[in-house]
Amino acid sequence: MSALWNKIRARALGQLQATALTETNDGISLSYGDLYRKVEELSDCLKRLKPGSIGLLADNGADWVVCDLASLAADRCLAPVPLFFSSEQREHALDDAGVTWLLAAATADLPEHYQPFGSVPGPQHIVLWQRKPGESSRTTLPGTAKITYTSGSTGNPKGVCLEESLITQVAETLADATGEIAVQKHLCVLPLAILLENIAGVYAPLLRGVEIAVPSLRQLGMQGSSQLEPTCFLQAISNSRPNSMILIPQLLDALVQGTRSGWNPPENLQFIAVGGGHVSSQLLEEAVDAGLPVYQGYGLSECGSVVSLNLPGQNRLGSVGKPLPHVKVSLLSGEIQINKQLFLGYADGSKSNPDALLATGDLGYLDEEGYLFINGRKKNLLISSFGRNISPEWIEAELNTIPGVIHCAVVGEARPYLGALIAAAPALDDRFIDSAVGLINATLPDYAQIVCWSRLDTPFSTAAGTLTANGRLKRDAIMASYRTQIDSLYPDQYKHASIEAPARFRSS
Question: Which of 69, 112, 144, 401 could form a disulfide linkage to 140, CB 3.0–4.6 angstroms apart?
Fold first, then answer.
């Protein structure tokens, strides 16, 4: 039996009547006893299936958690697939992970080589699908308990193979690290197929006997990977009244904007972990001023998710916290390196090197007290025609604090000055954006200021190939898709370093 499920099982048996999962505010819930019984029933079913990876394609909810835990209990490799993947990305993930059996809704839009197999005990709205006989499937790396999909440099997501021992270690470490926070209810906001919410928002709380609210993504006002209805999102938080949440920067910004418009966060909200991208110091300061208990963290799928985290009593604004106890961080030429023996490899069959440090590709430093700071991605560094090395994430985080800005991308590789592509709410006036950019420029050194910007007709998206599965910019795709618009920011006479750039030039 899975060590992680065994620990959660022991917790469940010790508090059978306590609430484990709630889906909505209308009374739909599972006690720890109900959760235990449903997981055991489904686990027995999964154990009897022929060999092969199991896929999970479902919305956030109690069914998702039951399927996930049952796969653990059955010692079967599980590959959760985010609903916001395009049909091509979804098919790639299922093939890449060698998914023979798939847990999904009866109405799910699936590749033709999957056929219904039958109902399963435990989840209410999930049925079992089988890859058609004769359809070949890839075998996974030995010891793989979960294949989690993260963004790659191309349109196809990348499957990271994780051992159960690493997943358990991270979940237990997080449960211990947050033990002094009196969390009785956690609200899952991110898709459960995202490893961060899966481990930190489900496994760690269950190990502590916490109630977990798992509303559907639509109930939270979310569509796809990057569309949000702020009013619905804020109302869902108010209705749920959680003690803790995990947010990405865009969602934290929605909370800050909400407080400016009169929204009051629940009084019992004690811990908001923020990760998944660079967060500007200004946004963090505004969140704190608004009474939001924000704690920034950092992680990688290859490390089993969380690497470092700020905590109450150990919180340094602008840092991503101190590395967790099981993690060792070192630096090589400014690049963050993580200790050995983490993930197994990738679903394509390429193995990790157990004797080598993991080069994260992230630039940063440790201060004298051991807090980790992230400066940006090594591969994303812009080198201006004046020879300045500039991390675009730094400036993008500041631009994203402008109310109404949805996405932005800073450009300027081999150019004499920086420009930006900005997608904003239709009601946001160009003059307001221009003024806000000017205020941000006043806080930046001259080489990092945005001299010119161009407004996008539509935001970036996974469907257009300009956003990764977890909402990060796909810079190569953006450069290719918006080449003409970017070039318009740099008239021919300004392309050479010897020519002085204009004070401000905007192209719409």
Answer: 144
